Fold these 4 entries.
Entry 1:
Amino acid sequence: MKLLVINGPNLNMLGIREKELYGAKDYAALCAFIQQTAEELQAEVDIYQSNHEGDLVDCIQNAYGKVDGIVINPAAYTHTSVAILDALKAVSIPACEVHLTDVNAREDFRKISYVRLACEKTFSGYGFEGYAMAMRHLCSK
């Protein structure tokens, strides 16, 4: 099983930004957690992060025919990006949406997710563990 984990804007700032929401662990710790989870699942994983919408679309498109599942935390693009939604729909790779915080308990605009329309499941509010939950879901298929 080969997985692609995609992280959107500002996730590279973990450990620096809004620690009361996102905690003190940094992006390197998240990547190490994802790698460890992949090892436990005996899966390969590639991790990608960008602050640019078009780069995220390119990454999804480039995954076509190369990966078995996508875990995506589109971050702020969750609520705005039809382009990311369309890219996920175009490649038809099973995908799960992840959010570190419970977006449904935050501002009203965060309750809207375009990306969710192309995902099998959403894991929201579980911190790093949400990534493991998504990876386990995709590997169980």
Entry 2:
Amino acid sequence: MADPQQQRIDTLEAELAALRAEMQDFSYTVSHDLRASLRHILSYAQLVQEDAGPLLPDETRGFLDTISDSARHMGLLMDGLMELSRLGSVALHIEAVPLDALLRDVAHELALQHPQRSLQWQIADALPAVQADAALLRKALYCVLENAVKFTAQRPTALIAIATDAAGAPGMVTLTVQDNGAGFNPALQAGLFHPFKRLHTTKQFAGIGMGLALTRKILQRLDGRVDAQGVPEAGCTITLTLPGTATPP
């Protein structure tokens, strides 16, 4: 007689394999079929601008600029979708990952990318290690710290404080990233981690609204979670919760 538990496992594995195949089909469609059409739109708009631009009225040239800008923005949206979709199927390599070295490496990279900014990093001493995939965790931390840098752009000096919360759940490490930036309206918090969800206009801050969606997806795969608290014009606090090294992966 077949083992009901094994049958259930086999069924779940088959469903997972089907979902992965469906995701691969989606990724192929986005990376090939849709991108080919997008490249045609952008290329022909540029050709018209080059060949007939001087002969066209200012308003028509503005239309062509809008087409080109929209095509480039759509390309960025596709890149974001592709990255989000890949996170669900990438193989995990769980190990003990020291937070201190990883955070300082990401902070250093961001400082090099923004040499004109005054960035003040306050990273707590003796940060613990966590059980995680180092590459995925680095991506999540980069998204969170990049947001902190971005949303403090209107401050003379960006203050970004990183620490752990000793009051977290047993066996888990709670990491907080607090900034003195633009913050956000708490009433809009529900959509904060959704793809392309923005709580500020593109004129205020650049980007496509994918960073926290990627962070949430990564933390879910690492058996953790991410939360956010903010106050308009009074900064934002992102909280990452991850298994500690005493917790089996």
Entry 3:
Amino acid sequence: MKADIGLIGLAVMGQNLVLNMNDHGFKVAVFNRTHSKTADFLDGAAKDTTIIGAESIDELLNSLASPKKVMLMVKAGQVVDDYIDLIAPKLAAGDIIIDGGNSLYTDTNRRTDALKQQNILFVGTGVSGGEEGARHGPSIMPGGNPAAWEAVKPIFQAISAVVDDYPCCQWVGDQGAGHYVKMIHNGIEYGDMQLICEAYQLLSEGLGLSNDEIQAVFSEWNSGQLQSYLIEITANILAFKDTDETPLLDKILDCAGQKGTGKWTAINALDLGIPLTLIAESVFARCLSAQKTERVQAAVKLPKLAVEFTGDKASMVQAIGEALYAAKIISYAQGFRLIKEAAQEYSWKLNYGEIALMWRGGCIIRSQFLNNINDAYQADPNLDNLLLSDYFAEIMQKSEAGWRKAIILGVEQSLATPVLSSALAFYDGYRSECLPANLLQAQRDYFGAHTYERTDKPRGEFFHTDWTGTGGKTASSIYNV
């Protein structure tokens, strides 16, 4: 009996996806560049399964039923291209190559188009959920050549997470749309994590709460509107004790790592002219944390000025929770606004509510909050921004006072809140009918003849002023972000 799908790359994610497929009745063939890893897998976690081990690419391909489906779970970048170059010549028209890694969406665009010329179908799919998700049900975001969807759909939807009988896997769109949506997911993940970290620091250093007290706060938050996987695991982390029964968290170095997807999201936002301030600040916060040695020196050279908190702690805890929720809404509003701009820029037909539903299970940012996002897009599929929906607008108005109090606490205690603060700055700017960009345009025209529009003239008419009396009438070319 031929295998339903082949998978290359037996790192943890690859192994767990294979076991997940096997659990759901699919016959899987596997290959790893280091064959000993394949042997160890077959003798270990895959023992007594129907999983087939292959010692070569040819053996793997020969074991597959047509149309052949080969999934790559390898390092993003050149390694993916190398395997495609190796596999594609051995495939027939209509066979399918799937990239399940964290590839940049532009690479997926290129690969989809190139393989289409060879009559090979390409799928670039985001897979979120980490090791546990891969094993028991991830969020899967496939895009690429739509002709491949019907062939991979039964497998992907069977192994994905399911929430309310809805598989957390739907076709996202053409070319790199799937990997793009996964990139935005990861950017939002960066923002969510940093928001939680800032709330933690306000509770810890700002209010002087113990780890156990903060753990109780996060547990309570997880039973309300802030319920999410990241809030849940934060409560678990706060409760975890080291071998000496002291909090392990207090012994972890405050130096964060990153793999680049948050940076990709911020760069894309700059390219498309979308203010993705919260996610960008979360990336910079990780960069700042990495400057540990320099920060230690600065802490001595630039001592903090702090005012001890003397107010009602319970009231401030509530304010911090309101700030966390309001800023979280900003993060998703910015993220979905960027997705909408990308859909227009790259001619993708995307279902924004469906994207939110796919993120409800399996993935890192899963939360009940995503149902509300789907509701907003169901009510208005052409919604420009989540902040304009009645549901979220009401929450923002109710949360604003607490949000400002939390940031003031950070300012008074000399505690950095770059993401909470940038989110509020965006919110205040977004709802401002008038911004000081009139002065900015005057400055640009003064020194560079970049022109400006006038409030008393129709939009689209541009003017230049000879501000000094010594300039000319020639204007510079116009560039609007």
Entry 4:
Amino acid sequence: MKETIIEFKDVHKSFNGLFVHNGINLSIRKGEIISLLGGSGSGKSVLLKELIGLLKPDNGEITVMGKNIVQMNEEALMELREHVGMVFQGAALFDSLTVYENVAYPLREHLKLTEREISERVAEKLYLVGLIGIERKMPDELSGGMKKRVGIARAIATDPSIILYDEPTTGLDPMTAQRINELIIDLQKKLGVTTIVVTHDLQCVKTVSNRIAMLYNGKIITVGTWDELLQSKIQVVKDFISGNICI
């Protein structure tokens, strides 16, 4: 059993009196790929925002690398974020910056590197995601899949211990989505990072996950492998996997 690197303990979060999280409990192991599965509005993306301190839970604890981030001030959270890479839905590149400057952005924000070191790091990360020689291109010159890979290069620029993917295959055709799935697995193996994938894409879940956690009615209702989910006796899980409902 690998050590726990992230733990949610009885996490509650509501907006305008409506519960999004109603007692979330989840332990995430170092070096694994775990997918958070659930329908729109189930609180998957909120969980990621709580994890990096952009939102604070109403109650409960979130421990990352042995530290309770709920008690952290903004300075401590900024330091934590150096160890966490985030791949946003739609890549969220800066339209006015070149590919080079997009990938270099977190390096300038968090690390004290020379321009030569930044250049070397940008080239290294673009190579890892299969993009070479596009540093001077603007985001509007890239395909959807290329934008997503640039977003991943930016997320791994600071050599994080944890990578968070928010709907990494949304809006992509099946072939491009499969390339992104393979890249997620490849980077986890090469970099040894802990990976959290938020998605409702069952093909992505099936392809990349070591384990899967399903959110429903503000709680984690099951955690297991894909095969274990297929054998689940929980009706909501069975219906979701079979496509009979969208939770």
